[in-house]
Amino acid sequence: MLTCLLRRSYDPTELIARHPPRLCNAHKKLVFELACPAGARHAGSIEVTRWAAAPLPAVVAPATTELVAAPGYYEYETRDGLWHVNFADPALFYAYGSALLAQDELQAAEHPALGSLREALVAEGLPALTKEAGAPTPVLVAGVERRCAIATAPDRDAGRPLGLYGNRFAAAPAEVVRAAIRVIEPPTLTNLIAIAAPNGGIGRYTAGELRQIAVTAYTGFAAAVAESRRTWPGAPVEVRTGFWGCGAFGGNRQAMALLQLLAARLAGVDRLRFYASDASGEDALRAGAADLAHVLGTSGAADKPAIEAVIDRITGLGYEWGVSDGN
Fold this sequence. Notes:
There is one protein chain. The chain has helices at residues 12-18, 26-35, 103-110, 113-123, 168-171, 174-180, 207-231, 253-267, 279-297, 307-316; strands spanning 4-10, 46-51, 66-70, 82-88, 131-132, 135-136, 139-150, 181-196, 238-241, 271-275. By secondary structure, it is of the alpha/beta class. The chain has a single domain, classed as Leucine Aminopeptidase, subunit E, domain 1. The strands form 2 sheets. It has an 8-stranded mixed beta sheet. It has a two-stranded antiparallel ribbon with strand order 5-6. The chain starts with a strand and ends in an 11-residue tail after the last helix.
């Protein structure tokens, strides 16, 4: 059962005017000034919801989720029922104004109203949290404008031989950052699922860690399905994701692919589009999908295996934590 803890709607023009983002880094200020020049008007309405951790369904129903492997990274577009995973901090958009440019901060920079959204929630005394008291509380943000795109891939000719991702963003010259910013006219609209990945694990994943990851992804995905059915009845639900928690947090790519696919299937997502970045990522995605098929087919009831038996069998695969990539 899903429980909505918070629901708020904001006019984006008023939101940014009343709660301007607090940008501590000069490059982040530059991005904002280009994406949101003085007098800019913002379309639509931003709908924010926060959800309590939901128990996993008792059994895994037959597959209905289509898995699509995509190269590279997110390709945003505006479409009913389309959601992108935000690889969130437990404090929602916490580092949006900092020098860092990892996945969470990159999304906040390209969707500048997200910083104002955090400031508004804090000002209203509302919990801007994707995790509380050790339990996940995913936050969904629907209808936020993507007003610019930042090229982070390595490009020697553009003055960024190692790219702009992570800590390299702050070290780059201002002219290189400026050249990497493309203002989107007119802006597109994005729907986000903000979920915080676990970190700090050592050795093999425990059953508790695997269950917590599955609950986090399932709650966020199920909330996206529920909100899509409420807002866009009949529209197929697509979730776009990648190796959530596998950068700075050292998550296991194969395990995180498996668990997100399992969560999408439990939540009734129609399509999971997984951005695997490169050939090694595609290999990890395929291996995770194959592991899930094996687990579901050998858990005692191939038609509707019990979720606890599935978690136990995933634990038995012996997935191990990796190390942070430093971003």
